[in-house]
Amino acid sequence: MTTGSRRVQTPEGLRHSVIHGPLRAAFAVALLCASLLVAPHAHAAHAIAQYGEPKYPAGFRHFDYVNPAAPKGGTLVLANPSRLTSFDKFNPFTLRGNAAPGLEMMFESLTIGSSDEVASAYGLLADDIVVAPDGLSVTFHINPRARFSNGDPVTAGDVKFSLDTLKSPQAAPQYASIFSAIERAVVVDPATVRFEFRERNRELPLIAGSMPVFSRKWGMKPDGSRIPFDQLAFDKPVGSGPYLIDSYDNGRTITFKRDPQYWGADLPVRVGMNNFDRIVYKLYADSTARLEAFKAGEYDALVEYVARNWVRRDVGKKFDSGELIKREFPQHNGTGMQGFFLNTRRPLFQDVRVRKALDLALDFQWLNRQLFFSQYARIDSYFANTEWQAKGLPSPGELALLEPFRAQLDPAVFGPMPKQPNTDPPGSLRANLLQARDLLQQAGWTYRDGALRNANGEPFQFEILDDSGSASSMEPIIATFTRNLQKLGITANFRTTDFAVYQKRLDAFDFDVTTIRMPDVQVPGAEQITRFGSKAADTPGSDNAIGLKSPAVDAVLDALVHAQTREQLTDAAHALDRLLMHGYYVVPHWYSGTHRVAFKRGLAWPKTLPLYYGAEGWITTMWWYADPQARSHTGTVD
């Protein structure tokens, strides 16, 4: 599993998504790398693939994108991988509180994905995978060498305990949604566990295999009683991962050490990985302090998401001398959806014409020229940069999914995909705002008495919520957007709050508009239900931030997760993209095709890059110090 965070970093300071806890992000990346449709016949295998055979055969020695000879040692010091500025627990699976960064390094799953394939899963805790002929169950045999950090063997009972706990009310509610189609885990014997499904869904073996596994002894007291799972705070997790918590201080610093007894170091899926003896996270109060600390040498690597920082602020004597280095690394990830998310639970945003008008008020071309140094492209799909992006007119397969709901849908859904507004000549912001004004008038909003008002005389005003950690990065963008809205008579107030309050409000859906990035996926699957399904709209803390409730979307989601062929999956994904883009639930932002990384001299990485990866997780998992002895434990280079 790869690194994750409560809020995922994105271009121009957006470092938040709607997944909860470090392990949710890791879980999302596991789905990205390992989505599969299970073969229709029973088989035992080291790996399974969506179509054909996995890239790496049985007996492979390591993934192509690692350095099997990477030296071990040294301490890697990092800053906040998210906008989190403090932590108050070590349990990333519960809703309340803020989990420490890096905890994903303590947990493993039965399978793990390959970062140079879009649809494969290889055994990690499991050394054998058997999919039932009817597709209604999958059985995993646990590697007899697998051990938890306390030395206990990983057993089928622990796997069952993990599933039952994550589906219980004591875990964050979205886990019950993620694993809802898994009827139960059955302990066949101490080393064998079978997941039984409520329905035949080709993605379910993947979901079962990527579930984080932890020991039944986590939270158990010496007298045999148990601390309730949702009350576990600084009780150190008992997982099977390569790192352990070494020390922590005041909820602002945490140090992980590589487990000298780690059981899986020589597994093919682990060779060349986890090369640092220690990984330290220092949490800074805001993005400015974080950047200045890097330039002062307080930590080792910075993934830069703000274009103007990369060009203007990530400079200085240490960059000139070569002590600090800047590199751009290509990546082939889907973009995910990033933008201003509109909470349709609010009456103000329930009319699609209003939502489309807000989209017309964002001048991306101006922002890209003036603020982003022309480094970005506009997002125009929920699956941009992948084959799942809908284009042109609906295909016959898409129409078959959409036709039953024609009477409920905007006729535009059955036409071409919408294009994002453009202000480059012959287009202009004025033309876009005139179109927006007409849409608002159609929706009952007219300008009078100094403001845009509805029939009851109420002014059109709302709040854009953000946390104080990213305010400096987002403020010029939001200021430009709100100035354009003012020309329509709309008042948008930018409000910042501390991250804990911000997160609590998002969990309760107590916001009008906020900036969010949904993590990208290379193959869409069940995670789309938690993002856009009607049931998730009423689940506190769920990924359905926009509050979408649509029978048509629900039906397409059902078709997507039950697709039996690649063509069926493609049609469902295209239909979903078409419905969402025509709904204008988000004012889309922008994306880059590279990861921008600044780092200290002496750090090294594999010659062959992954195709689908997050930069932070790639650094912690696959980088190393060329001379580990030259790296002290204080965060400085000797």
UniProtKB/TrEMBL annotation:
Keywords: Signal. GO terms for molecular function: peptide transmembrane transporter activity. Residues 123-518 form the Solute-binding protein family domain. CDD domains: MbnE-like. The keyword Signal applies. GO terms for cellular component: ATP-binding cassette (ABC) transporter complex; outer membrane-bounded periplasmic space. GO terms for biological process: microcin transport; peptide transport. Residues 1-44 form the signal peptide. This is Extracellular solute-binding protein. It comes from Paraburkholderia sprentiae WSM5005.
